[in-house]
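Sorry, can you check?
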Amino acid sequence: MKNEKKISYTGYAILGTGLFCFLYFILWLIFTEKMPLHEYISDIYNNYDHYAERALILFPLVLFVFIFLSLMKPTSAKRFLRLQASLPTSKIQSVAKGLVEIEGILVMKTPLSSPVDNEICIGYYYTIEEIDKDSDGDTSYRTVHRETQCNAFQIQDDTGIIEIQPDGIELALLGETNISSNHNKRYKETLLKDGQKMLLVGYADSQNGVPFIRKDDHYKILGITSASGVSVWNKYQPLMRSFLLVCSVILLIIIFILIQ
């Protein structure tokens, strides 16, 4: 079982930076010339309108860079999607040792009971979210618990069947199977069930001549998704990438014109 509590380090960094700048400004107002960087702060303070105008112009650029870096940040889900797009789908009977992609029907060996609806399943991805409502009645959700649990299972295609060792498995591009709310919390689960047609990327290995698939040590990936969902992703991902590139170029041109 894998438990994760997601902490937004970016949020803490922004909050800490803002608090530091506020405290520094208060101390500068009190001690003025004794503070480091006095000349720069004084210039900004005396020419506030000029610097505020520049800040408003540069803000879209900073926002764009932040969004771009967030999108480019490597994650296991992104590695899975990138690898599955480049790997050919292998038949189980002919898998060779190494990183492979296979597609087939899930075969349950030892059942699990899901935490939300107590459904019999092979494995699940489970989250708990805190529900917050602001003064306007708008609802927001904050994830406070994540858990992935999966028992060993098999995948079967028209050529054979292979064992899957699920340690470190990630469920990608799969919608929630069940959602439940209770007081100020929301519970969601995504299930792997017997008989589902899935696509899996992992490392093909063998023990005593018996092949199996496990998490790849180099790419740190053992991912599974629906065959239909990943087909849609592969079809529209190049279009989305092109759209984002065009938008980025247009935004940079606009910022350049405003700066000039």
User: Anything to note?
Assistant: The CA atoms of residues 240 and 246 lie 10 Å apart. The first strand starts at residue 2 and ends at 4.
